[in-house]
Amino acid sequence: MKPVATSAATRTADTVPLTKSPAALLQGRNLGLQGQGRWIWRGLELAMAAGERVALTGPSGSGKTTLMRALAGLVPLTEGELVLEQRPLQHWSMPEYRSRIAYLAQRPELGDGDTVQAVLSAPFSYRCHRNQDYPHSLIEQALHQLGHDSGFLQRPVGTLSGGEQQITALLRLLALQPALLLLDEPTAALDPRAALAVEQLLDAWQRDTPGRAWLWSSHDSDQITRMCARRITLP
After folding, report:
1. CA 206 – CA 18 distance, rounded (Å)
2. Cys-Cys with 211: which of 50, 197, 215, 217 at CB 3.0–4.6 Å?
3. Interatomic CA distance for residues 188 and 106, integer angstroms
4. 135 contacts: CB under 8 Å, gap ≥ 6
């Protein structure tokens, strides 16, 4: 059986008492996930305040992607509790929860949209987003920052490279204006220049509304240093 993930490093990283703080954004209490007869991790405590830039680090196989998916409500926990904006997970509807905490996968699924524009606009037909308007100017500005013109929106999804798929998925999340981004290797498929442009875009996104936060996983230690102020480390 895999050792229980209750390392001092993981617990020490999150000792700020956020439970009664109005700035508390996300907390995980005694989180555990079991799969294939073993604990992937267990006894995890984590906390993030509004506006934080946090790295999720750990060796390969430590369960970083699985933890992000669990925080996003995509993988059911075996034990423990998630609390977002002072509300336990069971008190949220899942569409509402996922509108506040958004997960960017390493290999994102773009759905059935024929073009990039269709992919970006599709979520606004969902009931949980019907009170939001599609942010045309935000998308146009983001494309400019990433070195693309508006013609990118008409690109057929089937012609996109892996990096362009990551960019499209990121733009879709930013359009929904979540409170917390879970970024799982968000620039892994990009060349260094494009990766830097994504970093600059996300930096501007967070600074535009300082309460926004992210949890960022990357094998690029220099990127983690640039983009994150502290770390949560899985053993």
Report:
1. 21
2. 50
3. 7
4. 175, 177
